[in-house]
Design goal:
CATH topology of the largest domain: NADH Oxidase
Radius of gyration: 22 Å
Shape: globular
Number of domains: 2
Order of helices and strands: HHHHEHEHEHEH
Mean pLDDT: 90
Number of helices: 8
């Protein structure tokens, strides 16, 4: 009886110890700047107000390279990215979505007929691949101190009509990119996160 009690007590002690010290390494490294990726994730937010200054070609190319290196299922890469930077192209795109005044944007599209398909149920991986690429674009923009927001609220029919050069692709997302305006702030919803207890389970 006592053995069972102390065994359980030991388990509680270990759990308490783990809870108390599990994030010590994170806190120390974050303070000294070693947790660069987590700091990047924390500072990123959906920017909806931009300065008019253009994004440099160097930064555009870095974001495109980050997207190009993104993983896709079976490395099939059934995707394409369009960097919308010219005034004529931006005018066409802004007729579909105003882009929150951003000086440039990316369009990310995918081809389901070129994507990996899960044999068990036929699930197509094209949109997942495009989402991974979009995430790379967003995080690279944040790393370059640029604002970015993922835009999914657009009319795909109007977009296809505006950009015949994207024929054959399903445009999954637009990304407005630019230097954040001095008064740009995250939305009120940005910090509303589930608790870790509700979000994740250790099995």
């Amino acid at each position: 009886m006592k053995k069972g009690f102390f065994s359980r007590l030991g388990d509680v002690s270990r759990i308490h110890h783990r809870a108390a010290f599990a994030d010590v390494e994170y806190r120390i490294n974050r303070f000294f700047g070693s947790y660069g990726f987590l700091s990047l994730v924390e500072k990123r937010y959906s920017c909806r107000k931009f300065k008019s200054q253009p994004v440099s070609d160097v930064k555009i190319n870095r974001m495109l390279e980050a997207a190009r290196l993104a993983p896709t299922a079976s490395n099939k890469q059934p995707v394409h990215v369009w960097a919308v930077t010219s005034e004529t192209a931006l005018e066409r795109l802004r007729a579909v979505h105003p882009l929150f005044g951003a000086p440039m944007a990316f369009m990310v599209g995918c081809k389901p007929d070129e994507a990996w398909v899960r044999s068990f149920d036929g699930k197509n991986g094209a949109e997942t691949d495009a989402a991974i690429i979009g995430t790379h674009l967003m995080l690279c923009a944040a790393d370059l101190d640029l604002g970015c927001t993922w835009i999914g609220a657009f009319d795909p029919v109007k977009l296809a009509e505006a950009f015949p050069e994207a024929a054959g692709y399903q445009i999954t997302a637009l990304f407005a990119v630019g230097v954040p305006a001095s008064d740009a702030t995250p939305s009120e919803r940005h910090s509303q996160r589930k608790s870790m207890e509700d979000f994740a389970t250790e099995l």
